[in-house]
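User: I'm new to structure prediction. If I give you an amino acid sequence, what do you actually give back? Let's try with this one:
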Amino acid sequence: MKITPVEITNKDFKRTMRGYSTDEVDEFLDEIVEDFEALYRENASLKEKIEGFSEKIEYYASLEKTLQSTLVLAQNTADATKNQAEREAEHIIENAQAKAQAIIENTNKDNENLKREYEKYRMEFSNFKMRVLNFMESQMSSFTSASEEIERGTLGTGSLKVAGLTPHESAFEQKESMEKRAFDEDSFSEEEVEIKG
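Assistant: Good question. You get back a string of structure tokens that encode the predicted 3D arrangement of the chain. For your 197 residues, that looks like this:
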């Protein structure tokens, strides 16, 4: 049972013949009431402070819990973001490597096609060149034979026909006729003529 300062002040004792001095008891009780009241007030104040501290402790404990949850969530988010970024980076690198490989393969194919095409035209040009040279040698041989026969005076109409000339053509007409025959007789294709041009 808690005793309050008021109860001590209002407490009455029975009087007996051989009891203590009433004044001394009252004086002592007054001192006790004064000290007890001070202790009572201090105790009440300390209880209020303890309640305040308890509330703050609960608040900080709750805050700590929240912070820990937030840190765990932040760590999980950071890990997930990092993993996602790493996966995306790997995906980007794989795509870039695949595209680079495709470009290299296409370039190699184009290069091979160009090499084949170049070789084809080189061979065609080489064949055309040989045919032209053979034709020119043939014509030079015919011209040389005809010239020698003319100088000897033994060239007849039949010989002129063999050389591709007729006795009535002028030198200019003979030149044009020979150039025309150079293409007609040797059956050059249109492609070869284009290459020559």
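You can read the tokens as a compact description of the fold. Here is one thing that stands out. Helices lie at 5-10, 22-152, 157-163, 171-184, 190-196.
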